[in-house]
Design a protein that fits this description.
Distance between the termini: 10 Å
Strand order of the largest sheet: 7-6-5-4-3-2-1-10
Radius of gyration: 20 Å
Number of helices: 13
Number of domains: 1
CATH superfamily: Divalent-metal-dependent TIM barrel enzymes
Strand content: 5-15%
Oligomer: single chain
Number of strands: 11
């Protein structure tokens, strides 16, 4: 049996260039100390420029040494790879002396130098404060999503030689804007020797994808994770998603972790917290023709399964006193550390249950 995965959390650092939802007030060294104090095994910092705008090797080595001293894993990320949104990440173009590609190469080279060879990335973004379908870059009206996917794939092809030379995987997140079907096509086009997947279990539902089915699709390529559970509700939009700690939503974590194990995926289990002080909903616009036209890969059977999960959550919420739709609409949510520690407790219990089942059936 493989070694038991380690359970950690994702930390978002503040940026002088943009608003960051749910950003911590602690500096990175304090974050590492706090991670150990919470009994967690590791931490993911989203991008290297947030740690050091100049990629100061001395400071980054100090972080690596503190992580080793605290016996916590340290994962990092780099910028996004959609050329249609690079203007939103000016720090990367600055690093490259005007070249976004060179900036990304410098980030990859720096990470490899420090021994960080599994790197987070994503294709595009989400601006939840807008409160409409257009919050999501998938539905931009100035450029079609197909064109964004094509441009991103071509950019990744240019970055691939650097990734290969450095022995690094760039792990694209199952983010709000991209389906697992699309991610698999990109990984297989560029090559799984340099690309992988960061599995975010909560985002997939906004594409009508069931978390277990979505995990099975990407499992052979999963090298990093962003784990949250979801509460689902049938609403005027179709389905509305809210984030809850692992074990308190619709996901069967023993089954999901087993799917990863059967595929040979051995990532750290990194918990991503709810966004910000108050949690807005995210919607699967199932009734909107634009959504339907943009999700032809997703079958009706899978969408029907999600509807069933929403019904099951409503029953469970009433029986177990979990938050209902009215509670979420009132913006009631858990403090940061409680969300993480409750998630970690459930993930570790699920790992133990999975291990017990494996031993019994061996």
């Amino acid at each position: 049996m493989t070694e038991t995965p380690r359970v950690g959390h994702d930390i978002k650092l503040p940026s002088p260039l943009r608003s960051v939802k749910g950003a911590t007030e602690d500096d990175p060294l304090t974050c590492l100390d706090r991670t150990a104090e919470l009994g967690l095994d590791g931490i993911l910092f989203r991008t290297l420029p947030e740690l050091s705008a100049t990629l100061d090797r001395g400071y980054l080595r100090e972080l690596a040494a503190r992580a080793a001293e605290r016996d916590v894993y340290l994962e990092v990320g780099v910028g996004k790879v959609n050329p249609y949104m690079t203007l939103e990440l000016p720090e990367i173009r600055e690093l490259g002396g005007g070249s976004y590609l060179r900036g990304m190469e410098l980030l990859v080279e720096t990470a490899a130098e420090l021994g960080w060879t599994e790197l987070w990335s994503a294709l595009a973004g989400y601006k939840g404060h807008l409160g409409t379908m257009f919050s999501n870059d998938r539905y931009r009206t100035d450029v079609d999503w197909a064109d964004q996917l094509d441009a991103s794939t071509r950019f990744l092809a240019k970055l691939a030689p650097c990734l290969r030379d450095c022995g690094v995987h760039l792990n694209l997140e199952t983010h709000e804007e991209v389906t697992t079907f699309e991610l698999v096509r990109i990984v297989e086009t560029i090559g799984p020797d340099v690309l992988g997947v960061t599995l975010d279990t909560a985002n997939v539902v906004v594409h009508g994808e069931d978390p277990l089915a979505a995990t099975a699709r990407v499992a052979p390529y999963v090298r990093m994770t962003h784990l949250r559970d979801v509460a689902l509700f049938a609403t005027e939009h179709g389905l509305s998603r809210y984030l809850v700690p692992c074990g308190e939503g619709v996901i069967d974590w023993v089954e999901l972790l087993s799917v990863l194990e059967w595929a040979g995926a051995t990532p750290n289990l990194t918990i991503e917290q709810g966004a910000g002080r108050f949690q807005p909903p995210m919607h699967a616009y199932l009734r909107d023709p634009r959504w339907q036209a943009s999700h032809r890969d997703v079958g009706q059977a899978e969408i029907a399964l999600l509807r069933e999960r929403a019904d099951q959550y409503a029953v469970r919420a009433q029986a177990e006193g979990l938050p209902d739709l009215a509670a979420f609409e009132a913006r009631i949510r858990d403090p940061r550390d409680q969300f993480t520690t409750r998630s970690a407790e459930h993930l570790r219990a699920s790992l133990a249950t999975r291990a017990s089942r494996w031993a019994t059936t061996r």
